[in-house]
Design goal:
The complex is a heterodimer of chains A (246) and B (42). Chain A has 246 residues and is mostly helical. Chain A is built from 8 helices and no strands. The chains are: A mainly alpha (246), B mainly alpha (42). Chains A and B meet through helix 2, helix 3, helix 4 and helix 8 of A and helix 1 of B.
């Protein structure tokens, strides 16, 4: 807990975030490139799905980060409401756009994968519909956070929305268990996978690569928001005549 | 049905959208930090 509070100091956070941003980004890009190349060129086609199974290497990481992004929004929102630290609010807002992006990419790549596999672009089954709802929740959060910031709000309303929206995460997770539809059941778990190792291994690279890439984007957006807040605070002080530039 | 057209579309869309968000985030960060630095400098 003390470490969390120490990191919540913006100056200390920036001292860690600045040197981390570029390495996270480039290592992430390298892992994605290697994993995608391996998935496209080195792994065998699936006996049932054929070549289209190669979409797995980008579809699974985007699904993971779509849900992971909202977990970031929810955890940061709880931290903001409990400790009232503005950095937690910044972190929640910074997770929202990349989270929405990856949720959209999950839906789009899943739809593209569905056409040759299921014979349809879209099906209103539990997994697809709950994921689409998550995208709408992201868009609503982005609009709400923007409106709150523009009207000088204290960030409590977006934080409450961030926590309320997390009710979707277990629904998405268990949708393939509760409703038996077109989307396949869980094939990768903490204890093992039903996917053969010869096809599974590049997924580790793209999954970790996209996660680092996501983290780099969150850090960039947090740095941008912190800098913008500093400019705004300085301008306000200057307008009040209490902090004239030298 | 040729699966490679679908695979190419999925990878191209992911690459383009990820690159666009990364570039927009990087540019926003550079601009904001430059503005903050310009105000801080005497």
């Amino acid at each position: 807990m003390a470490t969390l509070h120490a990191l919540a100091n913006p100056a200390r956070f920036l001292r860690i975030a600045r040197p981390l941003t570029a390495p996270l980004f480039w290592v992430g890009v390298a892992l994605i490139a290697f994993g995608a190349w391996a998935g496209l060129a080195w792994t065998p086609p699936d006996y049932l799905q054929g070549e289209s199974v190669r979409i797995l290497y980008i579809h699974v990481p985007t699904a993971w980060l779509g849900m992971g992004g909202w977990s970031g929004v929810a955890i940061s929102s709880i931290a903001y409401l409990v400790w009232r630290h503005p950095l937690a609010s910044v972190a929640a807002r910074a997770c929202a756009l990349p989270g929405a992006l990856f949720t959209f990419l999950c839906l789009a790549t899943g739809s593209i994968w569905g056409r040759p596999t299921w014979g349809t672009w879209w099906q209103w089954d539990g997994r697809l519909t709950s994921m689409l709802l998550l995208l709408f929740v992201y868009l609503a959060y982005l609009a709400l956070a923007r409106a709150d910031a523009e009207r000088g709000g204290d960030g409590r309303v977006p934080a409450l929305f961030g926590i309320a929206g997390s009710v979707l995460l277990p629904i998405i997770r268990y949708s393939v268990v509760w409703w038996n539809a077109l989307h396949q059941g869980q094939s990768i778990g903490l204890t093992g996978s039903s996917i053969d190792g010869s096809m599974l291994w590049p997924l580790g690279f793209t999954l970790s690569g996209f996660t680092l890439f996501f983290a780099a984007i969150v850090l960039m957006r947090m740095r941008a928001m912190i800098a913008a807040n500093r400019v705004e605070a300085r301008m306000r002080r200057m307008a009040q005549g209490g902090d004239m530039p030298a | 049905m040729n699966h490679w057209a679908f695979i190419t579309a999925a990878y191209a869309l992911t690459l383009a959208a990820s690159a666009a968000v990364a570039f927009a985030s990087w540019r926003a960060m550079r601009r904001a930090e430059a503005a903050a630095e310009a105000l801080r400098r005497p």
